[in-house]
Amino acid sequence: MNAITPSSKFLWQVKREYWEHRGGFLWTPLIIAAVMLAFMAMALVTAEFTAHQHGFTMNGIHIDQLASHIDADAMAKFQGALDVGLITMGMPIRIALFVVVFFYALGALYNDRADRSVLFWKSLPLSDTQTVLAKVTAGIVLAPALAVLGMIVLQLGFLILFTLYAAVHGINALPYLWSPTHLVAMWVKLAVLIPVNALWALPTMGWLLLCSAYARSKPFLWAVMLPIVTGVMITWMQLMQSFSLHSGWFWTHVVGRLLLSLIPESWINLDSLRALDHAGADPSIALSNLLSFGAIADQLASPNFLIGVAAGAMMIAAAIWLRRSRVEAYA
Amino acid sequence: MTAVVQAKGLSKRYGNTVALDNVNLDIQPGRIVGLVGPNGAGKTTALKAILGLAEFDGSLSVLGLDPRTHRTELMQQVCFIADVAVLPRWLRVGDAVDFVGGVHPRFSREKCEKLLARTKIKPTQRVRELSKGMIVQLHLALVMAIDAKLLILDEPTLGLDILYRKEFYNNLLSDYFDEQKTILVTTHQIEEIEHILTDLLFIKEGKIVLDATMDDVSERFAEVMVNPDKADAARALKPLYERQIFGKSIFLFDGIDKTRLAELGELHKPSVADLFVATMKGTYA
Predict the structure, then answer these.
(1) What is the side-by-side order of every strand in the sheet holding B207-213?
(2) Does A81 reside within a domain?
(3) Each residue's pLDDT tens digit, B210-250
(4) Tell me, what's the pLDDT at A295?
(5) What is the CA radius of gyration of chain A?
(6) Quick count: other Cβ atoms within 10 Å of Cβ B240?
(7) Chain B nearest C-alpha distance from A63 (Å)
């Protein structure tokens, strides 16, 4: 009767996840962006108010004269700093994304068993493989894409606010703030980071889905306590000097990867960031180095990345297998 | 004609409890089969096995497919309503219709909308805003719009008032059921559906204790109201069950010649509920 293909079924299932989690996936980043913009606007009004009373200067230059004091070198520095600012501004949205997707994955194969709606979904001709993969996609592709949308809204809102603020002071900020090549390059970078983050997040996604599919109750306890208790045991055994495995390695590469890989860009090597910081390098250069396509490609090819992808895929396969036969759960 | 459901030696145990004990079943197309049993007798386990939702031992074929390995294909031809509480509460009615239309090749959107138009349900409402009765109307509209061969109903009207219950079964009979379709239904309200059943399956402690068509049932079983003076004569014929009412005894017999029974007292056709009570006596003792 209807033209139904496996891929159209898959898209419907991703859509279903979106319907159920619109609040976390779409509204959370947009609301955070709106609240941050409101705070910025309030800060600007306060600054304006204080400036009126006391006369506002920056590095000894009155703000109205700032524009005329900028030269090409300073301009480049300013652009670099602006990029860093615009990218890091999205931090609250990234943190929220981590929390939202963490709990989404933990409930994805559990909540419908607890409220028995799994029986409705299972009454439709949907394969368990597709169902689980749709949930993976919703968590590590769709939700981050919507978070990037929220970040772009935030950046645009910020730029508009400051352009208006500058205009009030008779400064045309358009050439400083609105460089299309910079903005588009940054958005392309944010978009490219989505699949990179997704691959990095696979071990956590797989682990949480596995716990979600396995637990008859309290998936959170399984997911969080099991790795942490194991980590504590290993640390303890190491203290007792009866075990040769380095506990620090276990915490970073097992516990950390199972629980925290959903944090966006958490694959960035923080040691190299610190090293650059100590060397006194410009933070904007450091950041653009770390996020350069070359650095990303190096990361993708690293064993840490690849082993994580393989482990994640195996845990997702196990979750699919469990999903076949587990229908019950206690709410 | 090939059987819709065929089970041979179907068994399932949970730890030490036996939920299904070597069950043999043969359900033909075009039948409305009532699967009746006390709580914990294995009804839901049997349905879950048929739907591919539980592992089992023995052989089971549903529409010629093994439900364990071909669940997705099977669900194109099989529909089920577990009970009123299983539609996700966050789902919007319109989205539910879109979704089922998007994933089910045998779903007719037109038919579903026609069925929903007869109710007070609006497409913008969420399931959580609907009453229990409306939820079951929605679920039934979704399922009846699917042209499936086997419909499985597990306590579909649990907790509904009599108006919704009557409407539910009337809709099923008038707008859904035909000789191509088979319905397998479990319910505790057997007296309400016995007139629509064509077959009866009683299950007790994981075993099928009665497997008969409704015609067989009225042939085989008879209820006699006997005055006290003939009670011993009636007991000698080994009744299935005996109860007292207004100083008389009512006996339920299986397979005793009706003319002989008529000599003892007034003959009745037993209700399925009476038959059920007689068959299941001692279950909870």
Answers:
(1) B78-81, B150-154, B182-186, B32-36, B199-204, B207-213
(2) yes
(3) 999 998 888 889 888 888 888 888 888 888 888 888 888 88
(4) 83
(5) 24
(6) 18
(7) 53
Q: What is the pLDDT of residues B104-142, one digit of tens each?
A: 999 999 999 999 999 999 999 999 999 989 999 999 999
Residue A85 is assigned to a structural domain of this protein: yes
Give chain B positions within 8 Å (CB) of A4: 102-105
Phi, psi of A138 (to 5 degrees): -60, -40
CATH number of B5-205: 3.40.50.300
Q: What is the pLDDT of residues B7-21, one digit of tens each?
A: 999 999 888 888 899
Pairing of strands B241-245, B221-226: unpaired
pTM: 0.89
Cβ-based contacts of B82 with chain A (< 8 Å): 116, 119-120, 123
pLDDT of residue B279: 85
- Is the Cβ–Cβ distance between B67 and B60 less than 8 Å? yes
Q: Strand B241-245 to strand B248-254: parallel, antiparallel, or no bridges (unpaired)? A: antiparallel
The helix/strand/coil state of B245 is strand
Chain A neighbors of B65, CB-CB under 8 A: none
Q: Is residue A7 part of a domain?
A: no
Please state the domain extents for chain B: 5-205, 216-280
Between CA A330 and CA A115 the distance in angstroms is 9
Mutate to test the interface with A, among B70, B86, B153 (most CBs of A within 10 A): B86
Residues of B in Cβ contact (< 8 Å) with A326:
none
Question: What are the φ and ψ backbone dihedral angles of B212, each rounded to 5 degrees?
Answer: -150, 155
What mean pLDDT value characterizes chain A? 87
**Neighbour count for residue B268 (Cβ, 10 Å):** 13
Nearest residue to A199 (alpha-carbon basis) of A299, A50, A287:
A299
> Residue A282's domain spans which residues?
24-54+73-325
When pLDDT is cut at 50, 70 and 90, the band that residue A57 belongs to is low
Burial A48-69 (b: 16+ CB within 10 A, else e): eeeeeeeeeeeeeeebeeebee
**Chain B touched by A5 (CB under 8 Å):** no
β-bridge pairing B221-226 and B265-268: antiparallel
pLDDT of A1 reads: 46
User: How many structural domains are present in chain A?
Assistant: 1
Q: Does B14 touch chain A (CB under 8 A)?
A: no
ipTM score assigned to the predicted complex: 0.89
Tokens of B73: 């294909």
- Asked whether residue A66 is domain-assigned, the answer is no
pLDDT band at B90 (very low <50, low <70, confident <90, very high): very high
